[in-house]
Model the fold of this input.
Amino acid sequence: MRKECELLGVARSTVDYQAVPEDPEDIRIKRLLDEIYMIDPCLGSRRLVTVLERDHGVKVNRKRLQRLRREIGHEAIWCKPRTSIPDHGHRKYPYLLRDLTVARPDHVWCTDITYVPMPGGSAYLCAVMDWYSRKVLGWAVSNTMETGLCLEALENALATTGRVPEIFNTDQGCQFTSAEWTGRLLNLGVQISMDGRGRWMDNVFIERLWRSVKYEEIYLFEHATVPALRGGLAKWFGRYNDWRPHETLGNLTPAVVYQTVPASPHNAPETATPKAA
Done:
């Protein structure tokens, strides 16, 4: 065994390692944390300890709770000092949507990543949305929160629509400041816009999408596998785009607005002219 490991260049400890499943109680707490985050994303670990014990009878110390929040990518929204400067290759871009009237489809696209609780672990969902019509143009699911997940959702959106936006808005997550992501957008000739740090309202439309998809699909059906999750999300996004009317769009569906609204801002219907938050 020792000689075989030397020839293969692997450590002996990895050969006999048996994967340990995630603690079911940790999975339950992550699910509760995700639901609470949809209600109030500003709660810190001290208040979350109180809320979990008061509302759900779950006693958990702060260190464990903070570890679980890091694993699902949650961070409380609060004002912070500017304590660091971006490294080379991780440039932060300015927010371009302030006081901008989004006048037509493909004027602004936006994207974000959200945590998806599952009975046996977790997954991550990334979606690309057209800001004007609210249509979900592309999405992807993975069990890791890496730049490749975001690029897959972007490529799906580009392939599905055959179009390129003028501005692409994201948060300042490491996936969206990476050279792979920004380089792809710059090669497409897209202007890059990024939310202010901790400013979830700057990307409010896709944040609202996460609330809908979680309460109407993810929490409701609790898909046990990633393929089952993909199937459920495909049905939900299809219904969201093609069937469900939106009051802010004059009770039209996102797909209809995206396909039929003229490119000229002078011809856009007034009821379907969302403004940046």
Residues 235 and 266 are 34 Å apart (CA to CA). Residues 204-221 form the longest helix (18 residues). The two ends are 61 Å apart (CA to CA).
